[in-house]
Amino acid sequence: MTVSIAALDRASSLVTDKAREAELLLRSSECAVELGRGALALDLASRADVGQLEPSGTARVLIIRETVNPGVSGSGVAVADFISSAREVAAAGEADLAAAALWTAASRCWWTSADAGDRLGVAAATQALDLPATDPRRIAILSYTVTADRRPQLRGHLPQACADRQDLTGLRFVASAAANLGDHALAVRLFGAAVTLARRQGRLGVIARLQALQAWSTLWSGDLDAAAMLADETGRLAGEQNQPMWHGAAMLELALVRALRGDYPQAREELWRRLASEENRHVRLYHAMAIYALSVAALGVGRYAEAYEYLRRIVDPADDVSHYGACQWIIADLAEAAVGADRVADSAELLAGLAAELREHPAPAVRYAVLFADAILAGHGTDDSTAMARFQAAMAADPGGGELTRARLRLAYGSWLRRHRRMREARDVLAAAQETFTRLGTSGFAYRAARELRTAGGAGQQPGTPGPAQLTPQELQIAQLAAQGLSNRQIGGQLFLSHRTVGSHLYHLFPKLGITTRSQLADVLAGPAGSAGDAAS
């Protein structure tokens, strides 16, 4: 593709037809975007006389500029400009270009939490294109922009849109839609497939974005080891490609992992610094995600009042961290924080409204969160039979791949059983919760579960047990490659390290895993972290 950029640029200087020259320059610019060469892409686009290609020229330049420098900080180009351009090219018969412009506009809406007028404008223009209901572009754009009542319909079309999907563009759309519709387990798989395909095709410019988004979904699925590994690699790649938005996302994700692991005070300070950085401070979604992760970390160490205040900010439209999409994540956390902080009466109306909106949500993980909230609120009341029924209903539901959420429900249920003197049942439930917390490396929740388990007469293990959670992202990557049978030299070749450095890493990570030989790696890494990491490689 590098050769194509140079050839197209050279050809543009040889033609005399201005329209042909502009077309060659824009095609060269679009190739540069795919390779991650943003400065070159902008230079090539600036040299094109797009007036020769109207209405398509303006739409293509808008997309190029937004892709290289997402206008989250105010680029002078409004969402309405993308909608207007999309309508013009659609009227000229260029539906594919119109869809691309609307996808760019929808992405801007998502990152900045655009107002309802902009979102509904994008949705209306997309519906006017009359794309098939299962078109990945239609599903992705609408998943970023439509109101909650439209989401079940979109989720219903997603399986067919995903079926046998092997093209990179289509994978990008369906993966983004899956994440926005709350199906993070599916999103992790689809983003992983897209990253693999992008690597094969040498499209370096899209890998950092795809992998950053894969890390987000991996994080919310509770696989902190894999999320850290993905974020670490994304940070390096985005730095090399001069993609500050995705570098900022990766650094924020690493801070979120540390927060969820239980180092709450230090992680809180680091997150505030990250959010204030030039890379992150204008991206509204990053702020909502960080506040949400901080609330979960605060819950992990029992700081319910702080968690409650964080979560209220996300749903307050007047707050500068609120986000229209983030509201679907928080109902279980808000219920737990409200109970712990004795703020149930203050939040009753809000919780009831969220439950009514989300109870029929298309994603199992979101419906599970509603059942979690039902149970923990009932457990706070005086009707024990209702509380038991709701806990059992939640325990029997599909968590949608959210291991951390399921373990947190077990912790809440086990604590309720202990308070009601049902000690044997409490010990079984709490032991299962603590095992999951320890394996995931969420030490705050693990300590809470251990304390509850000891109070119930069990033997709570001390967190920090040897396992993958003790490894750094690079150590985990090396361990996974070694577990696949690669030699130190082969691992070094993949990771651009010397074989001696690889050997040193292995020497230091063996004790962290509680093993002594290379042959034990496959067994100790078996589980969510290993499988998610393989999908991303």
Query: C-alpha Rg, in Å?
Result: 24 Å
Shape: globular
Number of helices: 29
- From N to C, what is the helix and strand string? HHHHHHHHHHHHHHHHHHHHHHHHHHHHH
Q: What fraction strand? A: under 5%
Helix share of residues? over 70%
Number of DSSP E strands: 0
Overall mean pLDDT stands at 86
Q: How would you explain this protein's 3D organization?
A:
The chain is mainly α. The protein is 73% helix and 0% strand. The protein is built from 29 helices and no strands. α8 (136-145) packs parallel to α10, α20 (364-379) packs antiparallel against α21 and α20 (364-379) packs parallel to α22 (403-419). The two termini are 23 Å apart. 57% of the residues are buried.
Write the layout of secondary structure elements.
Blueprint: H1 2-14, H2 18-34, H3 38-46, H4 56-68, H5 79-91, H6 95-112, H7 116-128, H8 136-145, H9 151-162, H10 168-180, H11 184-201, H12 204-220, H13 224-240, H14 244-261, H15 264-276, H16 284-300, H17 304-315, H18 331-340, H19 344-358, H20 364-379, H21 384-396, H22 403-419, H23 423-440, H24 443-455, H25 473-483, H26 488-495, H27 499-513, H28 521-525, H29 528-536
Helix pairs in contact: 1-2, 2-3, 2-4, 3-4, 4-5, 4-6, 5-6, 5-7, 6-7, 6-8, 7-8, 8-9, 8-10, 9-10, 10-11, 11-12, 12-13, 12-14, 13-14, 13-25, 13-29, 14-15, 14-16, 15-16, 16-17, 17-18, 18-19, 18-20, 19-20, 20-21, 20-22, 22-23, 22-24, 23-24, 25-27, 26-27
